Structures are given as structure tokens and as C-alpha cells.
């Protein structure tokens, strides 16, 4: 086994791979709590994970869906490089950052891209508009060199430069922008996603990337472009075909608790989304899951009982993928609750679930564009 792992590591070193470290930091929710703004924020911006997936005449990317996200990476844009903190989001496809043209208060405490300072920037006459439900981000599209730290350099990458951003709450966001990793079919204004350009320019050995999200440590999380780290797949990889090449969408057969079907009784669709923190499901299924776990209608549960709770098991493509109580129970100010949310997104092939970071932290996840599959390997 050790020899096999050694050979795997040698092969890994010979491939064109790029491991981008992610740091686990303060969430928007925590920042708002510290400034006494959380209650007002939640009233004005009710959490709605469904809004991200509704297709309308404009791109919809609600910032409140990122309020519990705590994994951030670094990119730079331009020549010389201007650095930004972004969320690597498999639930969207566009890259955008604040710009010096943004006069909104929300931009004032973030890094802003200045096209005049970049010798490689190319402007366009195209505009970008992203609706937020209670506000909007508008801006322009441009091309420039994007470096995904530390070593990937993508030439002529199209990206959005915000000119207005919604509300004063974005001021407290611990990230500057979003780097989308979903399919180009859902990209706003037909902009080519960053990973598509990585593939087209031969910057990765394989047309895939993989994600590891650390459960506890501030460091250790990463996105690996172009390959799979053998250290994290000693339990093998279960490959799941996509049911749609838009988001990273797969089909689930059912969800069980204590060997009993608890939800998704007749099958359903699910999106594996690094840009959503919680685990979201249709409201009807949420009620069933709460009941099976002994939680209240708001999801609260006895902190004393959390170590005796059962796994929530996802049945996907003939395999079983458990999420343990240590992953789905969260404690805040002495109150325990399950990290599940209600969402109603009907599709032609079934109701939609969102497998966010609560699920992803339990697995090493491979996103294969070459196979149009998601690979899951359970972490020890």
C-alpha cells in the first residue's frame, strides 16, 4: 500500500497540477453579529438558497447565500497583479470583483480592480447585471490576465468589474468577489468561465478539479486544478454521472435515517455546491428530516443528544453517502441546531436539493468536466 501511494505521488508530481490553498476564516454572519447588524440583515435579506438557481432574464447570485461560507482563496488580476479574495463557487460560472468605478459604500472596504493600472486590460462595451433580490450589482465586462495562486496564469480571461453593489451589508463581507466553477451554459452574458480557459489553454493535465474542505483547521483546505490527490482517496472514488451539464447536478434515489426512507422518496435532483454553506432540501422533506431527527420545526435539537443522533444517508447512483451528526449539528451561543434549510426548486426531473459545505466536508470531491461526473471519496 505504501509503495502504491509512493508511485501515485510520483505520478502526481509529473502532472500539470495546481493546488490552490483555501483559508477558513470569519463568516459574514459572524461579522454582522459583531457589529450588531445580523437581525436587521436577516429581515432585509431573508436566506433564500433557491434564488441562486432560478433562471431569469438576468443573472441571479444572492449574496445572502454566502453568509455562512468560510472558505476563501486568493487570485490576482492584471499586470502588475492586483490581488483579491474570492469564493471558489461550483454553483455559479462567472468571475467578478469590485472595481474602482464602484462608488457604493459596500465597495469601500474591499480591494477594487483598477484597469488603468494594468497594461494587459482590454475593455469591452458589454455590461454586467446581477440581481440580488433586494438590490443589484451592475458593472462592465473586461479581459485581463488572471492568476489563480500560486501558479496558474490564464490569459485574456473575461470578468466582471462591479460599478454598484447592493446595500451596506456587503461592506462586512470577508471576501471581495466570486470565481464560478460551474458550466458555461449558466454563465451570465456568455462569459467563458475561468476553468474552461484553463482547459482550452492546456494549463491542466486533466479536465477536472478536486476540492477538500477542512472541518476544523483554519488552513489545509484546497482546490486542486488538473488532478486528484491520492492521499485523500484511499477509500476509492465513487463516480456519479451528471443529470444536467449546467450546475454540478446529480440524481439521488432517496435519503434515509436509521435505515428508513426519510425524504426524497421517489428520487430527486441535487447540486454539489461549494458556494452554499448549508444543506438545503424541499420544505416538505425538511419537515420529514426534522421529525426523524427529533428536531423542532425550526431545526433546534438538544445539545446533549447530538452524539447519539443517527447519520443522514444519501443514496446516489447505487452507493450510500452518510453525513454524520458531527457534520450536520452546529452550536451557537449554547443552542444546537441541524444545518439544514428549506428550499423549493422544481425541475423537469424532480425537486432539487443543494449539497453544500456540510456535505462536502465529509468527502473529497472530484468535479470532472472530461467525464461529466462528480466523484466522491469518503474522508477518514
From TrEMBL:
GO molecular function: aspartic-type endopeptidase activity
Keyword hit for Signal: yes
Disulfide bonds: 102-107, 264-268
Cited InterPro entries: Aspartic_peptidase_A1, Aspartic_peptidase_AS, Aspartic_peptidase_N, PEPTIDASE_A1, Peptidase_aspartic_dom_sf
Domain called Peptidase A1: residue spans: 71-377
One Pfam family linked to the record: Asp
EC number: 3.4.23.1
Keywords: Aspartyl protease, Digestion, Disulfide bond, Hydrolase, Protease, Signal
EC class (word): hydrolase
Keyword 4Fe-4S: no
Family assignment from sequence similarity: Belongs to the peptidase A1 family.
Cited function: Shows particularly broad specificity; although bonds involving phenylalanine and leucine are preferred, many others are also cleaved to some extent.
Protein name per UniProt: pepsin A
Organism: Amazona guildingii
Lineage, top ranks: Eukaryota, Metazoa, Chordata, Craniata, Vertebrata
Amino acid at each position: 500500500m505504501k509503495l502504491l501511494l509512493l508511485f501515485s505521488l510520483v505520478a502526481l508530481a509529473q502532472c500539470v497540477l495546481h493546488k490552490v490553498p483555501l483559508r477558513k476564516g470569519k463568516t459574514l454572519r459572524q461579522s454582522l453579529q459583531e457589529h450588531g447588524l445580523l437581525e436587521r440583515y436577516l429581515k432585509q435579506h431573508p436566506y433564500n438558497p433557491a434564488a441562486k438557481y432560478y433562471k431569469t432574464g438576468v443573472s441571479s447570485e444572492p449574496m445572502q447565500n454566502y453568509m455562512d461560507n468560510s472558505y476563501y482563496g486568493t487570485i490576482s488580476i492584471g499586470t502588475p497583479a492586483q490581488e483579491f479574495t474570492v469564493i471558489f463557487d461550483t454553483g455559479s460560472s462567472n468571475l467578478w470583483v469590485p472595481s474602482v468605478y464602484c462608488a457604493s459604500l459596500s465597495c469601500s472596504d474591499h480591494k477594487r480592480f483598477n484597469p488603468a493600472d494594468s497594461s494587459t486590460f482590454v475593455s469591452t462595451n458589454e455590461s454586467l447585471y446581477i440581481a440580488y433580490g433586494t438590490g443589484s450589482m451592475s458593472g462592465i465586462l473586461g479581459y485581463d490576465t488572471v492568476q489563480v495562486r500560486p501558479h496558474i496564469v490564464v490569459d485574456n480571461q473575461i470578468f466582471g468589474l462591479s460599478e454598484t453593489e447592493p446595500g451596506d451589508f456587503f461592506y462586512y463581507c470577508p471576501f471581495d468577489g466570486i470565481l464560478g466553477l460551474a458550466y458555461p451554459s449558466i454563465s451570465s452574458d456568455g462569459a467563458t468561465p475561468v476553468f474552461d480557459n484553463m482547459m482550452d489553454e492546456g494549463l491542466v493535465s486533466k479536465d477536472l478539479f478536486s476540492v477538500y474542505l477542512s472541518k476544523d483547521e483554519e488552513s489545509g483546505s484546497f482546490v486542486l486544478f488538473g488532478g486528484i490527490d491520492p492521499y485523500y482517496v484511499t477509500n476509492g472514488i465513487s463516480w456519479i454521472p451528471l443529470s444536467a451539464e449546467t450546475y454540478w447536478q446529480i440524481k439521488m434515489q432517496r435519503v434515509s435515517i436509521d435505515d428508513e426512507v426519510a425524504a426524497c422518496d421517489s428520487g430527486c435532483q441535487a447540486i454539489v455546491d461549494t458556494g452554499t454553506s448549508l444543506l438545503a432540501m424541499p420544505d416538505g422533506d425538511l419537515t420529514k428530516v426534522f421529525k426523524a431527527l427529533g428536531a423542532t420545526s425550526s431545526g433546534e435539537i438538544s445539545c446533549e443528544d447530538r452524539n447519539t443522533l443517527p447519520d443522514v444517508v444519501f443514496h446516489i447512483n447505487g452507493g450510500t453517502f452518510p453525513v454524520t451528526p458531527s457534520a450536520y449539528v452546529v452550536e451557537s451561543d449554547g443552542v444546537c441546531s441541524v444545518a439544514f434549510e428549506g428550499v423549493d426548486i422544481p425541475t423537469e426531473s424532480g425537486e432539487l436539493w443543494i449539497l453544500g459545505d456540510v456535505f462536502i466536508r465529509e468527502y473529497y470531491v472530484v468535479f470532472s468536466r472530461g467525464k461529466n461526473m462528480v466523484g466522491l471519496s469518503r474522508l477518514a
